[in-house]
Design brief:
The structure holds two protein chains of two kinds.
Chain A lengths: L1 H14 L2 H18 L10 H7 L3 H6 L4 H15 L1 H14 L2 H7 L4 H30 L8 H26 L2 H24 L5 H8 L2 H14 L2 H30 L1
Helix pairs in contact in A: 1-8, 2-5, 2-8, 5-10, 5-12, 6-8, 6-9, 6-10, 8-9, 8-13, 9-10, 9-12, 9-13, 10-11, 10-12, 12-13
Chain B lengths: L2 E10 L2 E11 L4 E5 L6 H9 L6 E6 L2 E2 L4 H7 E4 L11 H11 L4 H14 L15 H13 L5 E5 L7 H16 L3 E5 L3 H7 L2 E6 L2 E6 L1 H8 L2 E9 L3 H8 L4 E7 L2 E7 L5 H10 L3 E8 L3 H9 L6
Parallel strand pairs in B: 3-8, 3-9, 6-7, 7-8
Antiparallel strand pairs in B: 1-2, 1-4, 4-5, 9-10, 11-13, 11-14, 12-13
Helix pairs in contact in B: 3-4, 3-5, 4-5, 8-11
The chains are: A mainly alpha, B alpha/beta.
Chain lengths: 260, 310
């Protein structure tokens, strides 16, 4: 019950800051609005791709409209910044000393982190859903395929970014440094996906980074869902699930240091 | 005993913050924990509340060991931290509901407890307001209300009146007395000696991580005061009076400045009545008389060599 209580009030605190939620919803919308249509050839020339030589990720992108791909990548880019909000829920409690009350209460740090994570992910999921719906209907972006699988992929990604937020907050307890870490991490992870989206090239470095990019697996899973590529979906969802569990474990280890 | 602390040691690397501290607190007491900054009070409190792990020693609260039954103990203990610990994004009522739920209260019991806590600190009429609109004193009162919402048997208050106006301070002091009258045991730390004198039945004074004095206020005053000082304002002083006063048994010093006389005597020499008689017999008139007793501030200064607010 403590987990649900913490989750509920974490969500309530977000709702009391509508500007934060509005920004989180509108940021991907504005970026998608700015970037879609910036590339002239709307459809990929598959013969050109074959000539360049394509990566695994690019193969699953072939049948997607480039505007759709830009929209999806921008959405992933923006929702990753939710990890700063997750860090903030932790850091604000260090700042206003309410973490002391949690330490003195009969609530374990595991319940505390899990509750906050559920609250964060719940709110971020609602905001992401609104962003997706706006992007889907306002810009005619294709989010076809199995809705439940799409929700699963987005939820796994949101859990990952939430736990990353917890880890960042546990390490530095300073929201500016957390924001900087989030930016650096996001840039590194999104870079191979962006390159593949805008200008597919065969690069060992990019292939190497994309092997470790959470964003790449999320995008791959989404393309897989849209294009009905079961292999892409399965492999990506398995990797994302393992990553979620691993990062949750890591967040407990680092969170223990600051919350217990 | 509600709290038993035995040989508590807490280190931060090589620095010993709490050094072999032992004390116990009876049920229904208001127990004062005094000491200058860095004396180890807050570390001791952190150990008692389970906020920090101890290096050695034993803490028993309600007869239960902090090592094995931490969760059970925490349910019965309320904490009022030195710094405000409230959610400014939640209303007064929501703050209380949140923490009440974390302590296991549900439904009608939770709402009743929240209402009682707000009424207790005089914030019932502000239940729907956000703390960001509150004055410093009101925030302090909410800080206390959150600490007592689950009706704890033991409340630990770490300087709850710091930085607030006298009116709010009086309100809080009265609330603490009422809380104690309801049977709640209170551990109280403060920089304000007058508060400690007014509230606490018993206290320990800490310095450099060690307990240097333990007892009720009278016992502590006994430890340091060997002399009494009497200030008199007298009309028509003459040297005959001064000679008679100096010759009184127990007087160690007697000085005159204008129409004011200062007499220092050994403690328990019971010379006040004799002084009055000497002055009355000489047809002089006593305008004012003040017997200066040692205060806790004096005790503190003598034992630690520091002022409490240093």
């Amino acid at each position: 019950m403590n987990i649900l209580t913490i989750a509920y009030y974490t969500a309530i605190k977000y709702l009391r800051n509508p500007i934060v939620m509005l920004t989180y919803i509108l940021a991907p919308v504005v970026i998608v609005f700015s970037l879609t249509g910036t590339v002239e050839n709307k459809f990929i020339d598959t013969s050109k791709l074959a000539w360049i030589g394509v990566s695994n990720l690019q193969v699953t992108m072939i049948s997607s409209n480039i505007d759709d791909r830009i929209a999806i990548v921008c959405l992933i880019l923006c929702i990753f910044y939710g990890c700063i909000l997750c860090s903030y829920t932790m850091i604000s409690e260090f700042k206003n000393n309410t973490n002391l009350r949690f330490k003195c209460s009969p609530v374990s740090f595991v319940e505390n982190i899990t509750g906050k994570s559920l609250g964060n992910v719940g709110v971020l999921a609602i905001c992401t859903l609104i962003s997706v719906l706006i992007i889907k209907y306002a810009f005619q972006v294709n989010f076809g395929g199995n809705v439940f699988l799409l929700i699963l992929v987005f939820l796994l990604f949101l859990f990952i970014i939430n736990f990353l937020g917890v880890i960042f907050a546990s390490f530095c307890k300073n929201i500016y440094i957390c924001a900087l870490l989030a930016f650096a991490f996001n840039f590194t992870m999104i870079y191979p996906v962006m390159v593949d989206t805008y200008s597919p090239i065969n690069s060992k470095v990019i292939d190497f980074v994309s092997e470790f990019s959470i964003h790449a697996y999320v995008v791959k899973a989404i393309y897989g869902i849209i294009n009905g590529d079961v292999n892409s979906i399965t492999s990506s969802v398995i990797i994302l699930s393992i990553t979620t569990v691993g990062i949750f474990g890591l967040s407990l280890i680092t969170g223990r240091r600051s919350l217990k | 005993m509600i709290v038993e602390v035995k040989n508590l040691v807490k280190r931060f690397d090589q620095f010993i913050a709490v050094d072999n501290v032992t004390f116990s607190i009876k049920e229904g007491e208001i127990f004062g924990l005094l000491g200058p900054n860095g004396a180890g009070k807050t570390t001791t409190i952190s150990s008692i509340t389970g906020m920090s792990n101890i290096d050695s020693g034993e803490i028993k609260i309600f007869g239960m060991s902090m090592k094995n039954q931490e969760r059970e103990i925490k349910k019965k203990v309320g904490i009022v931290p030195q710094d405000l610990a409230i959610f400014e994004d939640l209303t007064t009522y929501e703050n209380l509901l949140y923490f009440g739920k974390l302590y296991g209260l549900r439904g009608g019991e939770l709402k009743d407890s929240a209402d009682k806590a707000m009424e207790f600190v005089g914030l019932l009429d502000r239940k729907k307001d956000y703390p960001k609109k509150f004055s410093g004193g009101m925030k302090r009162r909410l800080n206390i209300a959150i600490g007592i919402v689950h009706n704890p048997k033991l409340v630990i208050m770490d300087e709850p009146t710091v930085g607030i106006d006298p009116q709010s301070r009086n309100y809080i002091i009265d609330s603490i007395k009422k809380l104690n009258e309801r049977g709640t045991t209170i551990i109280y730390t403060s920089h304000y000696m007058e508060e400690v004198e007014e509230l606490c039945n018993r206290m320990v004074i800490m310095d450099n991580g060690k307990i240097i004095a333990n007892g009720n206020k009278e016992e502590l005053k006994e430890m340091v005061s060997l002399e009494e000082k009497i200030d008199l304002e007298v009309s028509g002083i003459n040297y005959t009076i001064m000679d008679k006063l100096k010759s009184l048994n127990g007087v160690t010093d007697c000085s005159m400045k204008g129409n004011k006389i200062t007499i220092v005597s050994k403690k328990y020499s019971k010379i006040t009545q004799k002084i009055i008689n000497i002055i009355s017999d000489s047809e002089s008139e006593i305008i004012s008389l003040n017997v200066e007793k040692p205060t806790l501030e004096t005790v503190f200064l003598t034992l630690t060599g520091k002022k409490l607010r240093d």
